[in-house]
């Protein structure tokens, strides 16, 4: 890091201690020998901006919502809730809130293409009026969901005694029970006859006393998820990211070759703002792998590519953002090129830090932290998979090399985390002189994997590019077990305000705090 | 539970269905809220129905939207203006829901009610409502509040006026961009009600804050405020406060903001007066016409005529015309297209000499544009062209353009040009038309695309209307009837269609002597589709020809068709025969 503008990080980081991660909760824990259903595997995970809610999406197209329970009595003013941010000393505890089927498997008959129901991404939108809003997407279709407590209404005291009219059936709704009479239902064809009768019949000026309004009683509430809008048919390729804008009215969706800009209220049109599709598909050299809006500047967004670059775009400059305003990439030393160089350079995920100044990126081997004011190279690189370098050939053979690991930053921007194989995830400190590099396993005993902290990485002052190494393991993990490439932790999320991590391990959701 | 008298039955149902499980029934009940209110009477509407509606507001958005709309016209049902304030609570809750269209409708209804309310009621009930919404917990309430200030402000006492202004100021600085956007877009309406002294101080400072907002989406709404405020301010204040802002905006980093400026700039010209227009706005506009973002140039090009109308001719010729020349060869087809659709309006402004000297070359180059939309836009304004320079000058370059468009490979382009043919025909006159365009009209009848063939048949009808039956007999009927021998049945069908369209225009004589024999002949076609279309055409010809012809020619032909082996042919033949019988009976 280049000294100067890092006060906010440096000030709070008078040599921060490595966090002591503790297990908090697990949802959907596997019992020994239990077969994991494909549809139950978690494929997306996201905290809302207050950290009071957590959403997961799975391969079966379901979205599950969790609600924080440890601060329910906190009950702050709602206007504060809109703004987030309050300190708490307890660790977050969540409980299952609700779930709904967001996407169903579909078949595109025009293209003879099966569309999986798997949820690729979830993003929370602005809370309004006590209702939660979120966007979920599969490969092709984005949906806007509203989840709200609804009163369970019970209507009693009608003008017409429905039970008498039919003589039975307390559950039958009044309109149904009396529908044989032609002028009963006020909808449809009977409307005409109704109109006449109300005209013929003169109503006394003080009204008809015998009529009365239905009395509605409601005691309990139930959560209802309603799909408010469907943003479809705008992507030829698979959607890999969605991201909402700080202006609260727009969001982007990115597929392999294009990024589209939507207004949340308008589902039938979107604007293409980035198009990297070459005129001739044979000239295709890179695809978009991930895209995200800047957390505060509504005009800025970043997207990453399969060649390891991150581009920063200013939407003010032009309508079609073909030209990036900044490009971040690592110049690979020419000698070290191998068959795998390009594959492992592919960025699988990018995330803006909350301050909007830093961007975290994950490629197959490393996590990189970038300062958007410095495009010469990352301010820090954290080795995640360096020990797998000798095994790249095997990883290529079993396709693991194409696994897309996500990454996340803590709310204070001091730490970063990402997943790995064998149900292991890594947390690194990224403040200036942090040596924190923790390896944890997604079990009830996360520190099992902890190895002694490595010696402080060598760093020469004034050097902008710092390479830190985590513990170097070769083909075996700390316990001497061989790496299990089927147990991969692809999805994880950091609580926006506290040191709490939500980790998706196959079909289980593990929560840790420190 | 009571049984209800028979005449009240429908109303009772209506009331019960306010709470039905079926959304469609609820929706219908809400739409008939006025009927329910009349049945309940004014007092019970106030005391029971309105509170009932206020409580039951967690319904589906469609129902809420209908409710918001109905309540806007509900004053008569609650007992007139003096009771209007009872309508405020249900609308207030609707102002908070998260669906934008419901909120907008609720605000609209509140404005409608507020504008009828007595001044004292406004102060006692409406102003507190606005203040509650403005201090609302959720941004949705605050968004709605912004749209209500202009209703209450004029009635408020001075103390409250000061407070309202400061509340509005707070809304303009809200944390939520949605609220700031709402405040920005309602600023013009609010400003129109504020006293001039405060306008110059408070409102201008609010406005200046908004123009510096870091959210593009807010700034570009502030651009709209420029024009609105500019019209309210005296010229000198406008020059002092608004002009610098708009000039700044015209160089904003964000193309969307510049795009808005390009759309709005001409509105400000009148507000600031001629001199500042010349010194500041014209250069700003010229910059926008040369903007490096095509979207901005499209917006600017689209306003060229409106802008020039405000300027004096010399200024236009000196400053705008060179830009127009550049735009006519712009790299973006959409810019050229936008220019082509308005450029002809410049002619009257520039006068004949400048038009022929400067505008005509631009015009001609657009007419030869490689992009069909550009050419179409020019041709669609042909009547304006004619007025200014006369058709002679144009015909030479016009014709190749038309011919090219007529044969464009996109059928939509061909369709568009066909629709202009009657207009062209009337502008160019019979002689010119016969020479050049007649054959095209025939060619379209044999287009590969149905829509084109159909439009071509329609076109023949409109030409016949334009030039009269005699001309049609000479120039289109023989060629058209010839095509009934086309080996492809779809083309033969087109001719039948053309005949049915032409017959009413050409009158009974020509129909009997020329058209009818062809149709009757076609009834012997080998394709059933032709045959049942013959039946349909015969039915349509029936009212045109006299009774004896019907009996002599049409009926025998239909009788024969009614015995056809094909079921569809029989069906349409019988239908036509029935129609004949019906006419016979009535006459």
Automatic annotation (TrEMBL), chain A:
Record's GO cellular component terms: protein phosphatase type 2A complex
Keyword list, A-Z: Repeat, WD repeat
Keyword match Translocase: no
Disordered: region residues: 444-478
InterPro entries per the UniProt record, alphabetical: PP2A_PR55 (IPR000009), PP2A_PR55_CS (IPR018067), WD40/YVTN_repeat-like_dom_sf (IPR015943), WD40_repeat_dom_sf (IPR036322), WD40_rpt (IPR001680)
Highest taxon of the lineage: Eukaryota
PROSITE patterns xrefs: PR55_1, PR55_2
GO-annotated molecular function: protein phosphatase regulator activity
Thylakoid recorded as keyword: no
Pfam families documented for this protein: WD40 (PF00400)
General function of this protein: The B regulatory subunit may modulate substrate selectivity and catalytic activity, and may also direct the localization of the catalytic enzyme to a particular subcellular compartment.
Record note on quaternary structure: PP2A consists of a common heteromeric enzyme, composed of a catalytic subunit (subunits C), a constant regulatory subunit (subunit A), and a variety of regulatory subunits such as subunits B (the R2/B/PR55/B55, R3/B''/PR72/PR130/PR59 and R5/B'/B56 families). Interacts with SIC/RON3.
Family: Belongs to the phosphatase 2A regulatory subunit B family.
Protein name as annotated: Serine/threonine-protein phosphatase 2A 55 kDa regulatory subunit B
Species the sequence originates in: Rhodamnia argentea
Lineage of source species: Eukaryota, Viridiplantae, Streptophyta, Embryophyta, Tracheophyta
UniProtKB/TrEMBL annotation, chain B:
Keywords for the protein's UniProt record, in alphabetical order: Repeat
HEAT repeat residue intervals: 10-48, 164-202, 203-241, 242-280, 281-319, 320-358, 359-397, 398-436, 437-475, 476-514, 515-553, 554-587
GO molecular function ontology, one term from the record: protein phosphatase regulator activity
UniProt cross-references to Gene3D superfamilies, sorted A to Z: Leucine-rich Repeat Variant (1.25.10.10)
Entries under Pfam families matching the protein: HEAT, PPP2R1A-like_HEAT, VPS15-like_hel
Name of the protein in its database record: Serine/threonine-protein phosphatase 2A 65 kDa regulatory subunit A beta isoform
Ranges of residues in domain Phosphatase PP2A regulatory subunit A/Splicing factor 3B subunit 1-like HEAT repeat: 276-351
GO cellular component terms, semicolon-separated: cytosol; nucleus; protein phosphatase type 2A complex
Domain called Phosphatase 2A Regulatory Subunit A helical: residue spans: 358-519
Entry's family note: Belongs to the phosphatase 2A regulatory subunit A family.
């Amino acid at each position: 890091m280049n000294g100067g503008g890092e006060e906010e990080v440096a000030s709070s980081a008078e040599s921060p201690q490595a966090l002591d991660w503790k297990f908090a909760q697990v949802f959907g824990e596997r019992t020994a020998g239990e077969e994991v259903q494909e549809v139950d595997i978690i494929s997306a995970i996201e905290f809302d901006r207050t950290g009071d809610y957590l959403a997961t999406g799975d391969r079966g197209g379901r979205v599950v919502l969790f609600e924080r329970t440890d601060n329910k009595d906190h009950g702050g003013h709602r206007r504060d809730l809109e703004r987030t941010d309050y300190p708490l000393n307890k660790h977050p505890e969540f409980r299952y809130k609700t779930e709904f089927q967001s996407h169903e498997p579909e078949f595109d008959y025009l293209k003879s293409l099966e569309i999986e129901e798997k949820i690729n991404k979830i993003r929370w939108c602005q809370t309004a009026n006590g209702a939660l809003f979120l966007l979920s997407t599969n490969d092709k279709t984005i949906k806007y969901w509203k989840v709200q407590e609804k009163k369970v209404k019970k209507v009693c005291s009608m003008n017409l005694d429905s039970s008498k009219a039919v003589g039975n059936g307390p559950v039958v709704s009044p309109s149904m029970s009396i529908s044989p009479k032609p002028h009963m239902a006020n909808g449809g064809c009977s409307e005409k006859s109704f109109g006449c009768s109300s005209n013929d019949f003169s109503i006394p000026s003080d009204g008809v006393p015998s009529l009365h309004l239905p009395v509605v009683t409601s005691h309990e509430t139930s959560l209802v998820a309603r799909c408010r809008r469907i943003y479809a048919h705008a992507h030829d390729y698979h959607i890999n990211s969605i991201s909402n804008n700080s202006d609260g009215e727009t969001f982007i969706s990115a597929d392999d070759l294009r990024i589209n800009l939507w207004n949340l209220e308008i589902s039938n049109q979107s604007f293409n703002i980035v198009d990297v599709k070459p005129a001739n598909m044979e000239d295709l050299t890179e695809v978009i792998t991930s895209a995200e809006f800047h957390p505060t500047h509504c005009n800025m967004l970043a997207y990453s590519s399969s060649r390891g670059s991150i581009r920063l775009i200013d939407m003010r400059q032009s309508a079609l953002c073909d030209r990036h305003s900044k490009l971040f990439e690592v110049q690979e030393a020419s000698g070290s090129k191998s068959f795998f160089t390009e594959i492992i350079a592919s960025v699988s995920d990018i995330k803006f830090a909350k301050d909007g100044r830093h961007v975290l990126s994950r490629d197959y081997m490393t996590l990189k932290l970038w300062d958007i004011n410095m495009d010469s190279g990352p301010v820090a690189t954290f080795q995640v998979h360096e020990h797998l370098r000798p095994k790249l050939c095997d990883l290529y053979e079993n396709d693991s090399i194409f696994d897309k690991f996500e990454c996340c930053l803590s709310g204070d921007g001091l730490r970063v985390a990402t997943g790995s194989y064998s149900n292991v995830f890594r947390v690194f400190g990224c403040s200036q002189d942090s040596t924190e590099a923790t390896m944890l396993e997604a079990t009830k005993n996360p520190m099992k994997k902890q190895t002694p902290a490595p010696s402080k990485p060598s760093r020469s002052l004034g050097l902008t590019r710092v390479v830190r190494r985590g513990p170097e393991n070769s083909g075996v993990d700390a316990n001497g077990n061989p790496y299990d490439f089927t147990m991969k932790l692809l999805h994880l999320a950091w609580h926006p305000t506290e040191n709490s991590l939500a980790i998706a391990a196959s079909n289980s959701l593990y929560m840790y705090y420190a | 539970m009571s049984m209800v008298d028979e005449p009240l039955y429908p109303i009772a149902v209506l009331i019960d269905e306010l709470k039905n499980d079926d959304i469609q029934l609820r929706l219908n009940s809400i739409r008939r809220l006025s009927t329910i209110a009349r049945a309940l009477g004014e007092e019970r509407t106030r005391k029971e129905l309105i509170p009932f509606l206020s409580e039951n507001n967690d319904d589906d958005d469609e129902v809420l939207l209908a409710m918001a709309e109905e309540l806007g016209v509900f004053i008569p049902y609650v007992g007139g203006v003096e009771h209007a304030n009872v309508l405020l609570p249900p609308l207030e809750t609707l102002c908070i829901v998260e669906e934008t269209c419901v909120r907008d409708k609720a605000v609209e209804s509140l404005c409608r009610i507020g504008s009828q309310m007595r001044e004292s009621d406004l102060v006692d009930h409406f102003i507190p409502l606005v203040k509650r919404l403005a201090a609302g917990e959720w941004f949705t309430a605050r968004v709605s509040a912004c749209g209500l200030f202009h209703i209450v402000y004029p009635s408020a006492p001075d103390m409250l006026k000061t407070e309202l202004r400061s509340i509005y100021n707070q809304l303009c600085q809200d944390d939520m961009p949605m609220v700031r956007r709402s405040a920005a877009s309602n600023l013009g309406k609010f400003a129109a009600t504020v006293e001039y002294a405060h306008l110059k101080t408070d409102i201008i400072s609010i406005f200046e804050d908004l123009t510096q907002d870091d959210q593009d989406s807010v700034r570009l709404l502030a651009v709209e405020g420029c024009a609105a405020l500019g019209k309210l301010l005296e010229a000198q204040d406008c020059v002092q406060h608004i002009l610098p802002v708009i000039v700044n905006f015209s160089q904003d980093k964000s193309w969307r903001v510049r795009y808005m400026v390009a759309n709005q700039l001409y509105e400000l010209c009148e507000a600031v007066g001629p001199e500042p227009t010349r010194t500041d706005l014209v250069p700003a506009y010229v910059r926008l016409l040369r903007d490096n973002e095509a979207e901005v140039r499209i917006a600017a090009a689209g306003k060229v005529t409106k802008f020039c109308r405000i300027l004096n001719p010399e200024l236009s010729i000196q400053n705008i015309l060179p830009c127009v020349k550049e735009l006519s060869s712009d790299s973006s087809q959409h810019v050229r297209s936008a220019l082509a659709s308005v450029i002809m309006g410049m002619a009257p402004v520039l006068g004949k000499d400048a038009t022929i000297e400067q505008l005509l070359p631009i015009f001609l180059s657009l007419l030869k544009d490689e992009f069909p939309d550009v050419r179409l836009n020019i041709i669609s304004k042909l009547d304006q062209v004619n007025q200014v320079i006369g058709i002679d000058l144009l015909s030479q370059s016009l014709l190749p353009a038309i011919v090219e468009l007529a044969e464009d490979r996109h059928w939509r382009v061909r369709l568009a040009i066909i629709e202009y043919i009657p207009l062209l025909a009337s502008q160019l006159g019979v002689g010119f038309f016969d020479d050049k365009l007649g054959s095209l009209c025939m060619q379209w009848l044999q287009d590969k695309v149905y829509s084109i063939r159909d439009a071509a048949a329609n076109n023949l009808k409109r030409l016949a209307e334009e030039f009269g039956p005699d001309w049609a007999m000479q120039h289109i009927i023989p060629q058209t009837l010839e095509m009934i021998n086309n080996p492809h049945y779809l083309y033969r069908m087109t001719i039948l269609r053309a005949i049915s369209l032409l017959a009413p225009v050409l009158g009974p004589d020509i129909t009997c002597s020329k058209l009818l024999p062809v149709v009757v002949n076609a009834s012997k076609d080998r394709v059933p589709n032709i045959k049942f279309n013959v039946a349909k055409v015969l039915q349509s010809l029936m009212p045109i020809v006299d009774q004896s012809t019907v009996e002599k020619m049409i009926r025998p032909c239909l009788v024969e068709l009614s015995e056809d082996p094909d079921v569809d042919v029989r069906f349409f033949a019988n239908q036509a025969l029935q129609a004949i019988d019906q006419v016979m009976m009535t006459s």
